[in-house]
Amino acid sequence: MPPEIAITTSAFGADAVRSQGQAAWLDLIAAAGATHVEIRAELFNADPDLAALRDAIAAADLGCVYSVPLELWPEAGAGLSPRLPQALAEARQLGADTLKVSLGHYRPATDLRALAEWLDDSGPQLLVENDQTAQGGRVEPLRAFIQAARAAGLPVGLTFDVGNWRWQDEDPLQAARLLGPDVRYLHCKAVRRRAGGLHAVPPEAADLLAWQGLLAHFPAGLRRAIEFPLLGTDLLAETRRQVAALRTLDAPAYEERRHG
């Protein structure tokens, strides 16, 4: 089976998505050959109609991932985010099989029973992503959390964002070696320093080869997502090209094709 490919709505530009609505991009995402859309909570206008969006996603024959800018532990030494139950409920309303959040200020001694109360095998799957912050974008806190979650039997996993490690000067390959078995979703974006800051950009050949090296440390057939800008006069053709690149990334003949 070919791997599932998601496209984040943010790839089409925050301003355009906010003005047109996230449903406006579903047909393009499906036509490009993707299997899932990643809906971004931060791109909603006030009071989104989640049921209507769920129906539109189903009509486009797409699966759904729901991304919420939520830290599980928003303050050091404080309790679990009170926003988590609402985010889980919204994910269910959307028909999402996955809810993606950030770690926040987790400490190794944190009691995970409050988190366990909100999770069960019926879903959505809760995935914790390495973000761009000092508290949630470094390997060791994420490793401590996922080890504690596994010991407690919690149905959680990790989203591995290949570009976000740059914000904390972490090595993506070392992160893949340490976290790989618990990764369930791969966020793909190249990162370049421009105008004094780091920015997500479309991948070049060297980026794709580096991502291929990471895949050896993850479960086979890992779902992966485009989270870099999709640009071009023929947006559908460009999106199709990028979807195909991610889908064939771990095919046995990929490296030979790149060098052939």
Automatic annotation (TrEMBL):
Domain Xylose isomerase-like TIM barrel: 26-197
UniProt KW keywords: Isomerase
Cell wall biogenesis/degradation listed as a keyword: no
GO molecular function: isomerase activity
InterPro entries (UniProt xref): IolE/XylAMocC-like, Xyl_isomerase-like_sf, Xyl_isomerase-like_TIM-brl
Pfam families hit by this protein: AP_endonuc_2 (PF01261)
Spans traversing the lipid bilayer: none
The protein's name: Sugar phosphate isomerase/epimerase
The species this protein was found in: Pseudomonas oryzihabitans
